[in-house]
UniProtKB/TrEMBL annotation:
<feature type="binding site">
    <location>
        <begin position="8"/>
        <end position="9"/>
    </location>
    <ligand>
        <name>ATP</name>
    </ligand>
</feature>
<dbReference type="GO" id="GO:0005524">
    <property type="term" value="F:ATP binding"/>
</dbReference>
<feature type="binding site">
    <location>
        <position position="97"/>
    </location>
    <ligand>
        <name>ATP</name>
    </ligand>
</feature>
<feature type="domain" description="Cytidyltransferase-like">
    <location>
        <begin position="4"/>
        <end position="133"/>
    </location>
</feature>
<feature type="binding site">
    <location>
        <position position="72"/>
    </location>
    <ligand>
        <name>substrate</name>
    </ligand>
</feature>
<feature type="binding site">
    <location>
        <begin position="87"/>
        <end position="89"/>
    </location>
    <ligand>
        <name>ATP</name>
    </ligand>
</feature>
<feature type="binding site">
    <location>
        <position position="16"/>
    </location>
    <ligand>
        <name>ATP</name>
    </ligand>
</feature>
<dbReference type="GO" id="GO:0015937">
    <property type="term" value="P:coenzyme A biosynthetic process"/>
</dbReference>
<keyword id="KW-0548">Nucleotidyltransferase</keyword>
<dbReference type="InterPro" id="IPR004821">
    <property type="entry name" value="Cyt_trans-like"/>
</dbReference>
<comment type="function">
    <text>Reversibly transfers an adenylyl group from ATP to 4'-phosphopantetheine, yielding dephospho-CoA (dPCoA) and pyrophosphate.</text>
</comment>
<dbReference type="Pfam" id="PF01467">
    <property type="entry name" value="CTP_transf_like"/>
</dbReference>
<keyword id="KW-0067">ATP-binding</keyword>
<comment type="subunit">
    <text>Homohexamer.</text>
</comment>
<dbReference type="InterPro" id="IPR001980">
    <property type="entry name" value="PPAT"/>
</dbReference>
<feature type="binding site">
    <location>
        <begin position="123"/>
        <end position="129"/>
    </location>
    <ligand>
        <name>ATP</name>
    </ligand>
</feature>
<keyword id="KW-0460">Magnesium</keyword>
Length: 158
């Protein structure tokens, strides 16, 4: 089974990496798709986000990183992907992700399914937004993101 794990990954967190690694152990191929969201102000540009992910996932033969600008369901069908992976941290995530899952199923010509993966309890509070906020106040993000990401965040907030 080929699955996609979409997100902005700005920046990629330990929570994202946990979901990717767990998915890599369950599925034949995991496509980590860095999406463009015109409503977001990014800390890292597309190339930087892809580079950080590739640095972290280079030794996973069944994981590839790509970017896409458009509707996720179009990417899914164009690339013959079986399912979409979404991480769930709390009930509030479930409510918003459920809407996206139902919309994707409605618009899908291939009846694509969304699979929810529950965050590990120690990462249930973690988000890219929280990481950026902590970093903006010169806080320690070393336990929230991989080392290569921490270094790049520090450079951005110098």
């Amino acid at each position: 089974m080929k699955v996609v794990y979409p997100g902005s990954f700005d920046p990629v967190t330990n929570g994202h990496i946990d979901i990717i690694k767990r998915a890599a152990g369950l599925f034949e191929e995991v496509v980590v798709c860095v999406l463009v969201n015109s409503k977001k102000n990014y800390l890292f540009n597309m190339e930087e986000r892809i580079e950080m992910l590739e640095e972290l996932l280079y030794d996973y033969d069944n994981v590839k990183v790509c970017m896409y600008s458009g509707l996720l369901i179009d990417f899914v069908e164009k690339n013959k992907i079986d399912s979409i992976i979404r991480g769930i941290r709390a009930i509030s995530d479930y409510e918003s992700e459920l809407q996206f899952a139902q919309m994707n199923k409605f618009y899908s010509r291939t009846n694509v399914e969304t699979i929810f993966m529950v965050a590990e309890p120690e990462m249930s509070y973690l988000s890219s937004s929280i990481v950026k906020e902590i970093a903006s106040f010169n806080g320690d993000v070393s336990r929230l993101v991989p080392k290569n990401v921490e270094i790049k965040i520090k450079q951005k907030f110098k």
